[in-house]
């Protein structure tokens, strides 16, 4: 029986080559696209899920209540939190704090490389599953001069990995002794570093007097088994307040670390989205693409099913049971789907290097994983059943006596009517899904254009960033003055970090009229002279820092949002203190974005710091190459031991919106694929309809009908269906895109023309697809069409 199924299925496949090719191509595109998306989704869902302690590993967050009683949730915490958790909470077995990341030069002799690393407390390698290949994970970060490096760094510096006990020069610090070598951080880790330094010496050097209001660290806790996390979070509500009575509106909460990568957005202290939104979005897109491909199959199968009605009647007359017929027709669909799946798998294997490049991942088809094959077989089987089940049941239900009568039999007419209605419904559904993707693509593209062109309050054009380290930290001012005299350079300043991605924040600020209940969170960005001038920030009042005013070492510049939150109309000259460093406000700048446009602009205070980690240089218009040459020459002169590296502010800005950019690209590609698949089905249906109405077209041409009128006749029914799809898709797309745009504090508004453009685009593509076949049919000589009459 199976052999007979396969033989008949193969004969039908070969006999109707055009319909088979359209079906296979549509299924291949749908399955291949879905496989690529699902590989990406699976990779996203496995980020940080490799840690052995994952079920008991949590990250600490601070909920900071603002003056409007909203909660601002931040992963930055004080470094004092980690040791206090272990000392005071029996539920916490171990805890670790670490810095977000820093770039430092690692050198052995003349071999030197800039690498990304972090400062961390000793239990880092006991909590996280970053296996060490050399050294003891319990003691590797205990000594003040210890250094733990990755295998890749060990090979760069020494050419091998057994290097415990060897010395490495770190930045402009003393030599450090390698106390451990860990395996390279896997690609599915959100924590990325190439070396680790002990945190205690760094804290003593940088922090001065320890304060609970000073954030900037990431804190993680390993809980004991069977800990009630909800009860522990209640217990921790006033944890920070118990240590600092002034922090009355700061609470601490912990979330499972495995979930924080995907659920990074918070609303009023609770996870409320993040990358999980994109994972869900593209899971839906994968389902859409599969459905559109399946609809193609169902449409063409039902269109051709009338031609097989007599075949069904004859089989039933000679004794074929209905179950046999259902098995035959379903088997044909499943066979076609399995064939398409094999071709799609080959296509995915060819495309995955490009897809990895696009998504910046290292995905591969898991051929050795039996679950992958089970999933692929299940996907092919479900797709085949979904595509073939209706034609199979409908065809097998026909009564042989009625089917074998004349072509005008009532049963056949009913059959044709039912098939037509089904096809029309499927075409509407198919184009509704395609329109949703197209409108989504338009809105996402508009939002990304808005982000790129929005006035951020900072002019990032012609701005270059460079790391300040080594000898530059000691001689930064002479270096800056030399740059100002060089060719192609307009102005030079420095900051503690990228102004467009400011992460340090504190509640340790005060001013004369501050209320005791005011717990406003201020972002802190230390800057040097000429920062406002270099970044082209508008100065609203006062002045920026100047060497003519020695007292500026304790003075401050704030943004207009800070002035608004403070409730001071004329802040210039007002007393202000940051972490008990008392001074006055000397300048107010116009608001500029400190982070992504997803979040509103927050209060900002800028203290003067003449030694920072990031040089900021503005080049003269059209003189970028000359300015870079000057920068390189002077860097080698002032800092010869360090390699010359730099980045453009525009590149840093693009990295900030990497997720949104990726979503925009993927949506465009998959929307295009959806339209191609839908149009393949439309083309097949138009070809079938033209074939069915060959004699009608011949008669109309003999009676004087023009080619245009015939094209309009054949295209009109399809255009009506596309119009219905536009009406159905528009409100759904408006709701989905409105919801997505609300995740941005600053966004474009939905406009009618976006929906009109998407609708017009689909109508144009559909009309072009149908018209091609319609014109072909209209040009046929009526003599040939009517010859059999």
TrEMBL record:
Sorted alphabetically, which InterPro entries does this protein's record hold?
Answer: ABC3_permease_C, MacB_PCD, Macrolide_Exporter_MacB
Q: What broad class describes the main subcellular location of this protein?
A: membrane
Q: Which GO terms describe its cellular component?
A: plasma membrane
Q: Which residues form the ABC3 transporter permease C-terminal domain?
A: 284-400, 670-778
List the keywords (alphabetical). Answer: Cell membrane, Membrane, Transmembrane, Transmembrane helix
Q: MacB-like periplasmic core domain location, by residue? A: 20-233, 459-629
Protein name as catalogued = FtsX-like permease family protein
Organism (species): Spirosoma endbachense
């Amino acid at each position: 029986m199976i052999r007979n199924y396969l033989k008949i299925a193969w004969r039908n496949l070969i006999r109707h080559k055009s319909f088979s090719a359209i079906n296979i191509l549509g299924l291949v595109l749908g399955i291949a696209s879905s496989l690529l998306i699902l590989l990406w989704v699976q990779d996203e869902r496995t980020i940080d899920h490799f840690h052995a302690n994952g079920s008991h590993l949590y990250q600490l967050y601070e909920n900071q209540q603002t003056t409007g009683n909203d909660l601002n949730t931040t992963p930055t915490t004080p470094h004092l939190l980690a040791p206090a958790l272990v000392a005071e909470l029996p539920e916490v077995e171990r805890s670790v704090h670490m810095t977000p990341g820093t770039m430092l030069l690692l050198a052995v002799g003349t071999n030197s490389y800039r690498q990304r690393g972090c400062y961390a407390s000793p239990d880092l390698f006991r909590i996280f599953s970053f296996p060490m290949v050399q050294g003891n994970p319990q003691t590797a970060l205990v000594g003040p001069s210890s250094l733990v490096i990755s295998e890749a760094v060990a090979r760069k510096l020494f050419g091998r990995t057994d290097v415990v006990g060897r010395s490495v020069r770190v930045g402009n610090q003393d030599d450090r002794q390698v106390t451990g070598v860990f395996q390279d951080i896997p690609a599915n880790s959100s924590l990325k570093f190439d070396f680790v330094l002990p945190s205690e010496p760094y804290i003593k050097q940088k922090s001065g007097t320890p304060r609970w209001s000073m954030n900037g660290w990431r804190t993680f806790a390993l809980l004991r088994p069977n800990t009630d996390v909800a009860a522990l979070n209640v217990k921790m509500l006033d944890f920070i307040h118990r240590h600092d009575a002034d922090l009355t509106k700061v609470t601490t909460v912990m979330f499972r670390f495995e979930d924080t990568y995907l659920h990074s957005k918070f609303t009023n202290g609770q996870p409320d989205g993040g990358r999980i939104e994109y994972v869900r979005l593209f899971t839906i897109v994968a389902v859409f693409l599969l459905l559109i491909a399946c609809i193609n199959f169902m449409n063409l199968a039902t269109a051709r099913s009338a031609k097989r009605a007599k075949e069904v009647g004859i089989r039933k007359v000679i004794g074929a049971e209905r179950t046999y017929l259902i098995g035959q027709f379903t088997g044909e669909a499943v066979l076609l789907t399995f064939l398409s799946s094999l071709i799609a798998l080959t296509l995915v294997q060819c495309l995955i290097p490009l897809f990895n490049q696009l998504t910046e991942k290292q995905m591969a088809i898991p051929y050795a994983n039996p679950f992958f094959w089970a999933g692929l077989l299940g996907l092919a089987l479900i797709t085949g059943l979904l595509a073939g089940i209706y034609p199979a049941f409908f065809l097998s239900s026909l009564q042989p006596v009625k089917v074998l009568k004349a072509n005008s039999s009532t049963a056949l007419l009913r059959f044709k009517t039912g098939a037509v209605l089904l096809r029309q419904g499927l075409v509407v559904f198919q184009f509704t899904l395609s329109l949703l993707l197209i409108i989504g693509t338009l809105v996402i593209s508009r939002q990304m254009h808005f982000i790129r062109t929005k006035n951020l309050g900072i002019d990032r054009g012609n701005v270059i960033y460079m790391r300040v380290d080594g000898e530059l930290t000691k001689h930064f001012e002479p270096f800056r003055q030399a740059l100002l005299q060089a060719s192609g350079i307009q102005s030079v300043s420095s900051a503690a970090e990228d102004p467009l991605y400011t992460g340090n924040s504190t509640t340790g600020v005060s001013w004369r009229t501050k209320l005791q209940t005011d717990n406003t969170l201020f972002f802190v960005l230390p800057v040097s002279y000429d920062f406002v001038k270099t970044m082209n920030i508008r100065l609203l009042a006062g002045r920026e820092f100047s060497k003519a005013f020695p007292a500026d070492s304790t003075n401050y510049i704030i943004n207009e949002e800070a002035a608004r939150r403070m409730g001071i109309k004329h802040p210039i000259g007002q007393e202000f203190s940051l972490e008990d460093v008392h001074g006055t406000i000397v300048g107010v700048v116009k608001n500029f974005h400190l982070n992504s446009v997803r979040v509103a602009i927050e209060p900002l205070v800028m203290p003067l710091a003449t030694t920072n980690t990031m040089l900021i240089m503005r080049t003269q218009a059209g003189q970028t190459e000359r300015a870079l040459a000057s920068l390189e020459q002077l860097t080698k002169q002032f800092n010869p031991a360090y390699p010359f590296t730099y980045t453009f502010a525009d590149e840093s800005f693009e990295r900030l919106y990497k997720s949104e950019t990726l979503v925009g690209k993927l949506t465009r590609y998959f929307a295009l694929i959806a339209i191609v698949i839908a149009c393949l089905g439309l083309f097949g249906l138009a070809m079938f309809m033209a074939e069915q109405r060959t004699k009608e077209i011949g008669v109309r041409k003999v009676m004087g009908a023009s080619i245009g009128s015939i094209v309009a006749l054949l295209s009109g029914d399809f255009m009506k269906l596309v119009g219905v799809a536009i009406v159905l898709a528009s409100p759904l797309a408006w709701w989905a895109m409105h919801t997505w745009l609300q995740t941005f504090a600053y966004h474009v508004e939905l406009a009618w023309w976006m929906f009109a453009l998407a609708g017009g685009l689909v109508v144009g593509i559909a009309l072009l697809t149908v018209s091609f076949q319609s014109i072909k049919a209209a040009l046929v000589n009526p003599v040939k069409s009517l010859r059999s009459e």
